[in-house]
Amino acid sequence: MSKTKLVLVLFLAVVVVTTLMILPGCKTITTETTAATETTAAAETTAAAETTAAAETTAAPVSFEGVQLKVAMIDEPRERLFKELLPEFKKLTGIDVTIDFYGFEDLYNKTLTSSAARTGEYDVYQFHFPDMALFDERGFMVDVTDWVKRDWNEMEMDDIQASIQESHMKYKDKYYGVPTHIGSHEFYYRTDIFEKEGYALPKTYDDVLTLAKEIDAKYAPTTRGFLFMGRADVQGASTFMGFLGSYGGDFFDNYTHQRPAMDSPAALKAMNTLKEIYKYSVEGSNVYGFDEAQTAFKQGKAAMISFWDSGDNFFSDPEQSDIIGKWAIAPYPGGRTPNGGWSVQISADSKNAAAAWEFLKWIISPDIERKAVPLTPSCRTSILTDPQNSKYPSYAAFNDVLKGNPFGFPKVLPNWQIINETGTTVSSVVTGQVTPEEGLAALQKSMETIMLRYGLWDGKK
After folding, report:
1. Which CATH number applies to 64-183+340-408?
2. What tens digit of pLDDT does each residue of 157-185 get?
3. Residues 413, 415: Cα–Cα separation, whole Å
4. Where are the domains of the chain?
5. Of the four listed, 28, 80, 121, 431, which is most buried by Cβ atoms within 10 Å?
């Protein structure tokens, strides 16, 4: 069953849980209080407050010795590093942690089914940050806003850019999780070809199209002008987001922030350009996902690619890459690129939420973030801008993205339906099954239906 269908089935199947509302009692205070009484009461209040503050200052720290946590995470290098470093965490806190790894779809399904059934199987879950709209809206995860505010200085929160806090930590202005394994699309290009031909770096996707056509005429079939992920899923959608953001478009309009905007001039321009650039792209790009795209680029099959920043690791691998020393990252055409990644959150059914919060703070601590270099860009500005990390091109590039206007996946309840519909449309358009106008018209209608069905849009234009 597809991810989208699973979400819909579970929504219909999950029994509505009644929230127990506790109404605070009302206390009536007489106005016939003498000045002496008020003075005495104020003094007593002050003394009580001072006593409480003193008690809090001298209170023994909470002990987590012997506490056990279970964590569900994606099976990727950064997360495997966390597992290797768990003995350090136990030494610091006394907390035993078990991390279970899952593939992308399996992790989502495990998080959804366990949360909906309130099994309490895991204390901590990691999930794709747009899914905050599902898991946080439904009350499946713990609101950690008070803990974030309390531990702000300890966590060095000012070192995490506001855009990342907004996208990966917050839902409806409340904090729910911490960001890890994050990044964005970057624009990779072949320096050897650009230097030989004297090409300037492209500033727009119109420039990219012009270059792709010229390069393809000179270097094909060995090296094509462009390469992209066009698979009818999240990767195809992320590719289109790069083109869409470059031309100033978005999933929703700038007025309601809820009305779908696939009928905008920017969307049409983006889809037309993507269809045209397909003519000069590596054969198979229309069905390429993450693995196929990075493999083709490191084999030297294209001069340019819009790809996730983890490309640094693939393209720099001397045992696999044929383009060592022949690539670099350019500023993203148009200046706006998709960002992605994961939010790590505490299950509302955890019996050890306070201990779980210690784990969340630890995985994004400056110490752990430094140890994770160069595995995907850090969430911390100090590490992204550290001169010692300048040899990792995606770090500075990602920092530039964060300072600008990163293009996040739609953080709404039916986000996966919208992403899948977008990816399917991209595939249909570039392969000529439908025209850009037809594809976008169908996508607009589908998105409007989705938003209306979920009560996220009132139907007004």
Report:
1. 3.40.190.10
2. 999 999 999 999 999 999 999 999 999 99
3. 6
4. 64-183+340-408, 185-339+412-453
5. 121
